[in-house]
Amino acid sequence: MTRLEDAARADALAWAEARGWAHDGERDAITKTFRFKDFAQAFGWMTRIAIVADKMDHHPEWANVYNRVEVTLVTHDANGLTELDMTLARAMEDAAA
Ligand SMILES: C[C@H](O)[C@H](O)[C@H]1CNC2=NC(N)=NC(=O)C2=N1
C-alpha cells in the first residue's frame, strides 16, 4: 500500500477534519479522541473495531481511559496515510454513530 498522493490526502483530510480528526504532519497520521457514555460503550466499540482491523490486517494505535479512546491511524509500512487508514477511519465513524 502506497501513501496517499497530495490531492487524495487533501480530500481525505477534509473528510476527516470535518469529523474531528486532526492531522499529525510530522508522522502523516490522523488522530481523534472518541468519547462514549461509559466504559462499556467504549470497550464495546473497541471490540467491534478490533475485529474489523484484524480482518483488514491494519491496526490502530489507541489508548482507552474509561469512556475515552485516543486513536492514531497511520500505515507503518508506508510511513504515512494510505487508503487503509481512511477505510479504518470510516469504520470507526460508522460504528460510533
Ligand atoms: C505483517 C503485517 O501484515 C503488518 O505488520 C501489518 C499489520 N498491521 C498494520 N497496521 C498498521 N497500522 N500499519 C501497518 O503497516 C501494519 N502492518
Automatic annotation (TrEMBL):
Keyword Lyase attached: yes
Pfam families: Pterin_4a
Record carries keyword Lyase: yes
GO MF assignments: 4-alpha-hydroxytetrahydrobiopterin dehydratase activity
EC top class named in words: lyase
GO biological process: tetrahydrobiopterin biosynthetic process
Record-listed E.C. numbers: 4.2.1.96
Superkingdom field: Bacteria
Gene3D superfamilies associated with the record: Transcriptional coactivator/pterin dehydratase (3.30.1360.20)
Coiled-coil stretches noted in the UniProt entry, renumbered to this chain: none
Key words, A-Z: Lyase
Catalysis performed (reactions): (4aS,6R)-4a-hydroxy-L-erythro-5,6,7,8-tetrahydrobiopterin = (6R)-L-erythro-6,7-dihydrobiopterin + H2O
HAMAP family attached to this UniProt entry: Pterin_4_alpha (MF_00434)
Family according to the record: Belongs to the pterin-4-alpha-carbinolamine dehydratase family.
NCBIfam families tied to this protein: PRK00823.1-3
Protein name: Putative pterin-4-alpha-carbinolamine dehydratase
